[in-house]
Write a structure and sequence with these properties.
single chain; 430 residues; alpha/beta; Globin-like; Elongation Factor Tu (Ef-tu), domain 3; Rossmann fold; 3 domains; five-stranded parallel beta sheet; 11 helices; 37% helix; binds flavin-adenine dinucleotide; binds protoporphyrin IX containing FE
Length: 430
Amino acid sequence: MALTYQQTKLVRDTIPALREHGERITSIFYKNMLRGHPELHNYFNSVNQKNGRQPRALTSVILGFASNINNISELIPKFERMCNKHCSLGIKPEHYGIVGEYLLAAFGEVLGPAMTPPVLEAWTKAYWLLAKMLIGREAQLYKEFSIEGWPAWRKFKIDRVVPESEDIHSFYLVPQDRRSLPHYLPGQYVSVRIQGPDGFLQSRQYSLSDSYKAGYYRISIKRDEGARHSNSVSQSYFNPGVVSNMLFDRFPAGSAVEVSHPAGEFFLDTHNNSMVPLVLISAGVGVTPMVAIANTVVETQPERAISWIHGSRNAVPFEDHVAHLRRNNPNFHTKIFKTHLANTDLAGVTYDYDFRMDLGRVAPEDLHLDHGGTEYCLLLNKDPPLTCISNICGPEQFMLEMSDYLKAQGVQAPRLKFELFSTGDLAFKA
Ligand SMILES: Cc1cc2nc3c(=O)[nH]c(=O)nc-3n(C[C@H](O)[C@H](O)[C@H](O)COP(=O)(O)OP(=O)(O)OC[C@H]3O[C@@H](n4cnc5c(N)ncnc54)[C@H](O)[C@@H]3O)c2cc1C
Ligand code: HEM
């Protein structure tokens, strides 16, 4: 049932206090929920709870929703990212009751006596209004997955592992049931689930890194060695990533993993046959969905203009493949920024720039700024080598700076698509 005018006011009045105490909410909520329901450890990324990223994302979306409660229909597109992520992880309607109970209790602890029965009633309604919107959209996505006979986790075998660079390997995944795999849109990801070191299941998302093939899916994974920079926020950033290292070290060809149906709202819409220029902007391992997009376009729309602007600190993954695409497709252009060029690297030949990625250095014609319809796909991974690796400048910030640059050149927001290789609350930022 909709909130009354008085109830929307009660909700809005508490938002500043809840925002101010975001960290406390986050820690109370997750600690209590996982203590009460330890089985939920199987769904959550244990590191994103420790670093508070996921609970912060959830709380911030709920507060963002509540602030915009008078025009919720405009918010619906902003929920695509989380609904796709939820479905990729197997989140079910019954989970919403648990989250709602512990989240509202955490709000109550933070607000103290200000959480009067009318305020609690108003917040409960607001939560369920949002939850029902998400559950509804997730039901549609699950229905699509079921039509393709893949409603939940499916067993795959790692058929081959192929190095693409020193620390990025491609894993070729073949379904154990050998049934043909459904189409996906280039840019989408799958979740891969394995048993983590603490005995709980751990899932991570990996973009599909090739154009569609019926017999296998390819994902390309970077070994996450942890931060190597002394100015990182906390010592724990030095911990090597759990799942990527396990996949590299303990999952050779022949091993089994569980995989969920392709999902994700960051994709090239291949159904509309658009011929507008495409500008792909990526950094580090963010190359993976761009390879899928570029391969698909080159195979199906060879006349379409594509510029690929990529930044890398180490070797550029898929370098030979990208060079091959460039040589054989006059409509495919690349601009590669590489920092820390070694003596053996050839600036101006192999790489275009020895700088951190800076769109201001790219020629306007390579950014296709004069074409009113150009689509821009931006992806930065969690640890972009091209931005300041400091406490305040994360990948979201860097992405926003790039989108600001493009907007300042006259590109309208709907033509920009973002992906982030991490959990975040982009919904109310981008
Ligand atoms: C849509 C999407 C697509 C993706 N596609 C790809 C892809 O194609 N290829 C790819 O390689 N990756 C991709 N990723 C990222 C991938 O899902 C994983 O996040 C990545 O592999 C790291 O997982 P991990 O388990 O190895 O690291 P985690 O264990 O999750 O650790 C992540 C980082 O957190 C740090 N850390 C550890 N403990 C703490 C702590 N207590 N506090 C703070 N920091 C800590 C670690 O040092 C590490 O650097 C994608 C992510 C998303 C969301
Ligand atoms: C109204 C309720 C909810 C909101 C607003 C919400 C919001 C979010 C957001 C913003 C993200 C991050 C998306 C991204 O950037 O990738 C997320 C991820 C996630 N959510 Fe929810 N969520 C809700 C309910 C639930 C429920 C009921 C569960 C199940 C118990 C759940 C489990 C997860 C998990 C496991 C992730 C991925 C976490 C990670 O990878 O670290 N969420 N959610």
